[in-house]
Amino acid sequence: MDRLWAPWRIAYVQGTGKKREKQRCIFCDAAKGGHKQHVLFTTGRSIAILNIFPYNNGHIMVAPLRHTGQLSSLSPEEALDLFDAVSRVMRVLDRIIKPAGYNVGANIGRAAGAGIPGHLHLHIVPRWNGDTNFMPVVNSTKVISQSLEELHTRFMKADR
Ligand SMILES: [Zn+2]
Questions:
Q1: How far is the CA of 46 from the centre of ligand 1 (A)?
Q2: pTM for the whole structure
Q3: Which tens digits make up the pLDDT trace of 26-55?
Q4: Can you point out the beta strands (E) in the chain?
Q5: Inter-residue contact 74 to 68 (CB < 8 Å)
Q6: Buried b (16+ CB within 10 A) or exposed e, 34-47
Q7: How far is the CA of 76 from the centre of ligand 1 (A)?
Q8: Cα 26 to ligand 1 centroid, rounded to whole Å
Q9: Measured in angstroms, how far is the CA atom of residue 18 from the centroid of ligand 1?
Q10: What does the alpha-carbon distance between residue 84 and residue 24 come to, in Å, rounded to a whole number?
Q11: Distance, CA 53 to ligand 1 centroid (Å)?
Protein backbone atom coordinates (compact mmCIF):
# COMPACT_ATOMS: atom_id res chain seq x y z
CA MET A 1 0.00 0.00 0.00
CA ASP A 2 1.29 3.44 -0.89
CA ARG A 3 1.53 5.76 2.08
CA LEU A 4 -0.75 8.75 2.13
CA TRP A 5 0.96 11.96 3.13
CA ALA A 6 -1.23 13.81 5.60
CA PRO A 7 0.85 16.54 7.26
CA TRP A 8 -2.06 17.98 9.31
CA ARG A 9 -1.95 14.76 11.31
CA ILE A 10 1.16 16.06 13.06
CA ALA A 11 -1.07 17.90 15.58
CA TYR A 12 -2.63 14.55 16.35
CA VAL A 13 0.60 12.59 16.45
CA GLN A 14 2.26 15.18 18.68
CA GLY A 15 -0.75 14.97 20.97
CA THR A 16 0.14 11.43 21.94
CA GLY A 17 1.86 11.01 25.26
CA LYS A 18 1.06 11.57 28.87
CA LYS A 19 -1.35 14.43 28.38
CA ARG A 20 -3.59 12.45 26.07
CA GLU A 21 -4.03 9.65 28.60
CA LYS A 22 -6.09 11.98 30.72
CA GLN A 23 -8.27 13.16 27.85
CA ARG A 24 -11.81 11.97 27.71
CA CYS A 25 -12.80 9.34 25.21
CA ILE A 26 -14.17 11.00 22.06
CA PHE A 27 -16.27 7.96 21.16
CA CYS A 28 -17.98 7.91 24.56
CA ASP A 29 -18.45 11.69 24.43
CA ALA A 30 -19.96 11.37 20.95
CA ALA A 31 -22.19 8.48 22.08
CA LYS A 32 -23.54 10.78 24.79
CA GLY A 33 -24.43 13.48 22.28
CA GLY A 34 -21.13 15.34 21.90
CA HIS A 35 -19.24 16.15 18.67
CA LYS A 36 -22.54 16.58 16.82
CA GLN A 37 -20.89 18.27 13.85
CA HIS A 38 -18.84 15.12 13.22
CA VAL A 39 -21.21 12.31 14.17
CA LEU A 40 -22.85 10.69 11.14
CA PHE A 41 -25.14 8.22 12.84
CA THR A 42 -25.60 5.98 15.81
CA THR A 43 -27.29 2.61 15.81
CA GLY A 44 -28.36 0.58 18.82
CA ARG A 45 -24.78 -0.52 19.42
CA SER A 46 -22.44 1.50 17.18
CA ILE A 47 -21.49 5.04 16.23
CA ALA A 48 -20.02 6.48 13.01
CA ILE A 49 -17.96 9.66 13.20
CA LEU A 50 -15.78 11.69 10.85
CA ASN A 51 -12.06 11.52 11.57
CA ILE A 52 -11.00 15.15 12.03
CA PHE A 53 -7.40 14.18 11.23
CA PRO A 54 -8.22 12.35 8.00
CA TYR A 55 -5.79 10.25 6.04
CA ASN A 56 -7.94 10.94 3.02
CA ASN A 57 -11.21 12.59 2.08
CA GLY A 58 -14.08 10.61 3.59
CA HIS A 59 -12.04 9.02 6.40
CA ILE A 60 -14.67 7.79 8.87
CA MET A 61 -14.43 5.79 12.09
CA VAL A 62 -16.98 3.31 13.37
CA ALA A 63 -16.93 2.21 17.00
CA PRO A 64 -19.06 0.17 19.36
CA LEU A 65 -21.04 2.40 21.74
CA ARG A 66 -19.60 0.46 24.66
CA HIS A 67 -16.14 1.54 25.85
CA THR A 68 -13.90 -1.42 25.17
CA GLY A 69 -10.48 -1.71 23.58
CA GLN A 70 -10.79 -5.40 22.86
CA LEU A 71 -12.25 -6.79 19.64
CA SER A 72 -12.60 -10.13 21.40
CA SER A 73 -14.82 -8.61 24.08
CA LEU A 74 -17.57 -7.71 21.62
CA SER A 75 -20.76 -9.73 21.86
CA PRO A 76 -21.95 -11.31 18.58
CA GLU A 77 -24.66 -8.62 18.44
CA GLU A 78 -22.11 -5.82 18.89
CA ALA A 79 -19.79 -7.31 16.27
CA LEU A 80 -22.60 -7.70 13.75
CA ASP A 81 -23.87 -4.19 14.39
CA LEU A 82 -20.35 -2.80 14.00
CA PHE A 83 -19.92 -4.44 10.60
CA ASP A 84 -23.39 -3.34 9.53
CA ALA A 85 -22.34 0.20 10.41
CA VAL A 86 -19.15 -0.17 8.34
CA SER A 87 -21.24 -1.37 5.38
CA ARG A 88 -23.67 1.51 5.80
CA VAL A 89 -20.81 4.03 5.78
CA MET A 90 -19.35 2.47 2.63
CA ARG A 91 -22.74 2.44 0.87
CA VAL A 92 -23.15 6.16 1.52
CA LEU A 93 -19.57 6.99 0.54
CA ASP A 94 -20.02 4.99 -2.66
CA ARG A 95 -22.92 7.27 -3.49
CA ILE A 96 -21.45 10.64 -2.54
CA ILE A 97 -17.72 10.46 -3.28
CA LYS A 98 -17.39 7.22 -5.27
CA PRO A 99 -14.07 5.86 -3.99
CA ALA A 100 -12.17 3.42 -6.22
CA GLY A 101 -11.33 1.33 -3.14
CA TYR A 102 -11.12 1.34 0.65
CA ASN A 103 -8.74 0.56 3.44
CA VAL A 104 -10.78 -0.75 6.36
CA GLY A 105 -9.12 -1.78 9.57
CA ALA A 106 -8.28 -1.29 13.19
CA ASN A 107 -5.17 -0.42 15.13
CA ILE A 108 -5.53 -2.32 18.36
CA GLY A 109 -3.27 -1.20 21.20
CA ARG A 110 -0.93 1.77 21.42
CA ALA A 111 1.92 -0.33 20.01
CA ALA A 112 -0.12 -0.90 16.84
CA GLY A 113 -0.73 2.82 16.40
CA ALA A 114 -4.09 3.22 18.10
CA GLY A 115 -4.62 6.88 18.97
CA ILE A 116 -7.42 5.97 21.39
CA PRO A 117 -6.44 2.48 22.56
CA GLY A 118 -9.17 2.29 25.21
CA HIS A 119 -12.03 2.37 22.74
CA LEU A 120 -11.96 0.04 19.76
CA HIS A 121 -12.72 1.67 16.40
CA LEU A 122 -12.54 0.69 12.76
CA HIS A 123 -11.12 3.11 10.21
CA ILE A 124 -12.75 3.41 6.81
CA VAL A 125 -10.38 5.21 4.45
CA PRO A 126 -11.59 5.78 0.89
CA ARG A 127 -8.94 5.42 -1.81
CA TRP A 128 -8.65 6.64 -5.35
CA ASN A 129 -6.08 5.81 -7.96
CA GLY A 130 -3.27 8.32 -7.56
CA ASP A 131 -4.54 9.69 -4.23
CA THR A 132 -1.08 9.57 -2.71
CA ASN A 133 -0.33 12.53 -4.96
CA PHE A 134 -3.60 14.28 -4.31
CA MET A 135 -3.52 14.93 -0.58
CA PRO A 136 -0.62 17.38 -0.37
CA VAL A 137 -2.78 19.74 -2.44
CA VAL A 138 -5.26 20.08 0.41
CA ASN A 139 -2.91 20.16 3.35
CA SER A 140 -4.15 23.23 5.15
CA THR A 141 -6.24 22.93 8.29
CA LYS A 142 -8.79 25.38 6.90
CA VAL A 143 -9.37 23.30 3.79
CA ILE A 144 -9.71 20.17 5.91
CA SER A 145 -12.31 21.65 8.26
CA GLN A 146 -14.31 23.03 5.34
CA SER A 147 -14.23 19.68 3.60
CA LEU A 148 -15.28 17.91 6.83
CA GLU A 149 -18.30 20.18 7.13
CA GLU A 150 -19.25 19.61 3.51
CA LEU A 151 -18.76 15.85 3.80
CA HIS A 152 -20.92 15.77 6.93
CA THR A 153 -23.73 17.60 5.13
CA ARG A 154 -23.53 15.39 2.04
CA PHE A 155 -23.38 12.20 4.10
CA MET A 156 -26.45 13.15 6.16
CA LYS A 157 -28.41 13.92 2.98
CA ALA A 158 -27.43 10.68 1.27
CA ASP A 159 -27.89 8.42 4.33
CA ARG A 160 -31.63 8.03 3.98
ZN1 LIG B 1 -14.97 5.25 25.07
A1: 11
A2: 0.82
A3: 999 999 999 999 999 999 999 999 998 888
A4: 39-42, 46-50, 60-64, 101-105, 122-127
A5: yes
A6: ebeebbbbeeebbb
A7: 19
A8: 7
A9: 18
A10: 26
A11: 18
